[in-house]
Amino acid sequence: MARWLRDQGIAVFLLKYRVVQTTPEHRARLFAEQSSAHVNPEVPPILPLELADARAALKYVRAHAGDLGVVPTRVGMIGASAGAVVTLS
Length: 89
Description:
By secondary structure, this protein is mostly helical. The protein has one domain (2-88). It has helices at 2-7, 24-30, 43-63, 65-68, 82-88. The mean pLDDT is 87.
């Protein structure tokens, strides 16, 4: 998605935001054929952190728009999958 947008002449910045832990052991439990009910309690506490990361990124890009070659009032977000949840939040 980022490459396609860049190829259209749109400046792209990638956001690396906090997510639920993904140790090998955790991934094994998460993707096991068993129920993923143990993951549900982990998700709500991370959402405010993800949102804070997104807000900080937008604030940074807008504050440094001149240096980055973008118009501060034309900065937005787009995401897919978990990134869409962050974007919508």
